[in-house]
Amino acid sequence: MKYVFVTGGVISSLGKGLTAAALGALLECRGLKVRIQKFDPYLNVDPGTMSPYQHGEVYVLNDGAETSLSSGQVYETVIQKERRGDYLGKTVQVIPHVTDEIKDRILKGGEGVDVLITEIGGTTGDIEGLPFLEALRQFQHDVGRENVAFLHCTLVPFIKAAGELKTKPSQQSVAKLREIGIQPDLLVCRTDRPIGEDNRHKLSLYCNVGLDCVFECRDVEHSIYELPMQLAEQRMDEVVVKRLGLRCRPIDIAPWREIVRRLLQPKHRVRVGVVGKYIELQDAYKSVYESITHGGIANETAVEVVRIDAEDLETKGTASLEGLDGILVPGGFGTRGIEGKILAAKFARERKVPYYGLCLGMQITVIEYARHVLGLTDAHSTEFAPATRDPVIHLMESQKSVVTKGGTMRLGSYDCALTPGSRSRAAYGADAVKERHRHRFEYNDAYRARLEAAGLIVGGTNPQSGLVEIVEVKDHPWMVGVQYHPEFQSRPDRAHPLFGAFVKAAVEKSRRSC
């Protein structure tokens, strides 16, 4: 078992996660099984109750974990152990008890893979991140230094007044890391221009890193999916393989070349509107945006994502929806922007624009259809209108006794049996699938017969509970809503089937409009 730890210095937002993902992709291209995890030093137990403005989207795993692994989870576990008497009356301290818990989670995270890549959130020197770095210092000795590689992301800024790049911030950042007891093996330098051989030699000398282990990481020209090739050209995967003594085949970068080719040389172009309430925040719908791109790659299509604030639709009308080839309403919570999302669904249904609803977006589909096709003008979700006369979306029975908010939703992977003849069944090419969920409210089965008779068919259900997982508008080119989050299982080389089908429908719509 081999471990790669990714840290960052000087400033945040240097792209530690992208670097870790790109390295993981390169190692996978060598036939290795790789897993990535992230440790975040905040004290929240998980990001599930955090505002998107604080954390961005909440990524859900198959087991229901709302990532990332946080200080809050670690401290909570340590305190629970103390309360149970697991420490046999000892004084509970950061060292060894907190650091032992962190190390234990690293070991468990690496089970069943060849390489575990762990990103440490925050910036080297932050006080809240020190227990994690101390745990890494200990861990390298526990498993053997030959089984661990440290990759440090840093900044090499260009000072306009001096007319030159400066390596001192990187030197200071590495010095801080070495004070803690960690010597980086690889240095990834974020910069907006070539760093040059002189600066590479200087960084190698002052940071005590081999010359071939100093990597230049400039902003990619078109897409983040160019990054694996950029790092492969500098032989990062070779350095890591040699450092860790990995036995693997030579790299086959061809799949990534094909992905980039499809991005840069598309056969089609479409415009897709994403209607949400956190539109101004890039990370709030990060996986949705990337999954749309994946759907474009699968269809050799350049997708222009048009961000539309749901509240603007309520106050300014639907003019911003004109000319779109597809409309997507993502998940979310709270009443703000709900009526705007309903207007978007109505526009898509009436104008025959491909529509894709995710989680809340699926519930919006049901509410809109009940109001404007069934004529139930008060139809709503009890999440937003508890006293509605027609609760077509209501609280799940299992949620009615829930008091605390954190980690109590319907979380994780659940089965979905697909309806024969449905668009979803055709897209998946399978009779049953597993998808990840994160919700409290559900389709009200009491309205199912009337809705289906009116043309809103059920495309999939959970076989254990009977919960409706997918709805589809029958007399429409492509209008599908899913109760789950398919964006969490999409990849650039393997688009989620529904995202692929959605973009394909958008392409067909654009052709009809020509």
Could you describe the 3D structure shown?
By secondary structure, the chain is of the alpha/beta class. The chain has two domains: 2-257, 3-Layer(aba) Sandwich (Rossmann fold), CATH 3.40.50.300; 266-513, 3-Layer(aba) Sandwich (Rossmann fold), CATH 3.40.50. It is built from 17 helices and 21 strands. The protein has helices spanning 16-28, 52-55, 71-84, 94-109, 130-143, 168-180, 196-207, 227-233, 236-244, 254-264, 286-298, 310-316, 338-350, 360-372, 423-428, 448-453, 497-513; strands at residues 2-8, 34-40, 69-70, 115-120, 148-155, 158-159, 164-165, 186-191, 214-218, 268-276, 301-309, 326-329, 355-358, 379-381, 390-395, 410-418, 432-439, 441-443, 456-461, 468-473, 479-482. The strands form four sheets. It has a nine-stranded mixed beta sheet, sandwiched between helices. Strands 3-2-4-1-5-8-9 form a seven-stranded parallel beta sheet, sandwiched between helices. Strand 8 (186-191), helix 7 (196-207) and strand 9 (214-218) form a beta-alpha-beta unit. The longest helix has 17 residues, at 497-513. The radius of gyration is 25 Å and the shape is globular. The chain starts with a strand and ends with a helix. The mean pLDDT is 93.
CATH topology name of the largest domain, in short, is Rossmann fold
Structural class: alpha/beta
Mean pLDDT: 93
Number of strand segments:
21
- Strand line-up across the major sheet: 11-10-12-13-21-20-19-16-17
Show unreliable segments.
none
Summed up, the helix count is 17
Helix content: 25-40%
| Radius of gyration, whole Å | 25 Å
Strand content: 15-25%
Fourth CATH level, the homologous superfamily of the largest domain: P-loop containing nucleotide triphosphate hydrolases
Number of domains: 2
Instruction: Indicate the overall shape.
Output: globular
CATH architecture of the largest domain: 3-Layer(aba) Sandwich
Q: Span between N and C termini?
A: 55 Å
> Which class of the largest domain in CATH terms?
Alpha Beta
Biggest sheet character:
9 strands, mixed
